[in-house]
Specification:
This protein has two domains: 70 residues; 145 residues, no CATH class. It is 52% helix and 10% strand.
Length: 235
Amino acid sequence: MNIEITELTARLLAHRWLPRADTQVRRALVDEAFRLELETNLAAVGLQLLDNPFAEHVAVGLKDEVMDAVFGGRDYQASTMGLTRDEIALLIVIWALIILPKRERQLGRRQLGDDGQNDMFGQEKPIEHGDTVSGAISEASLLADFGAQLGGRTKIRNFALGKLARLGFIVRSNGYLHEGPLLDVLLDYRVLADRIINGTLADVLAAAGRALPAGMGEDEEELFDELDDEVEARR
């Protein structure tokens, strides 16, 4: 067996996620034979590689066919990483405030603070990841805007945010919340974006003075369709 495949499989199982910039991860993303062998290794233990071209990390998750065997007969929290309903609602709000604006910048090939008007060749740039496109939100502002609806400020500050940070969804630093390695990988943008932008949460965010970008455009649909085709071809 390829020693690199063994090492990468072990590292993914041990860490749960790895950055796209990692040498072995980069190879898995561009070398079809290498990735197929990696996915075969993961599938042997009921796992799959989670790869979103807009995310800075890749991760591993359960395959659909073993979900019932792992979570069947367990309570609600067993299949939600131990998160309560209030904590999941908080996670969705954070996701909307960080990932939706980030995706708009990525598709516009813009960085933070860049309106794109002075870049004639912006669309020819590769999609960027990390701090250049992923903004932070103020913890105090989040608590002020949504604390009452999501279980109370004390509960959110002392328990919920800490749990989301331990799970890898967010990073807390100097009073700000930043994107964690799993925020843009485990939450399905194709499912959530339209429901948030055109749903009740959009009204809640608007009432708090939080603007949301438009829905998924053709460019984004094409990128996700290409990824879906690649995944299907490997099966």
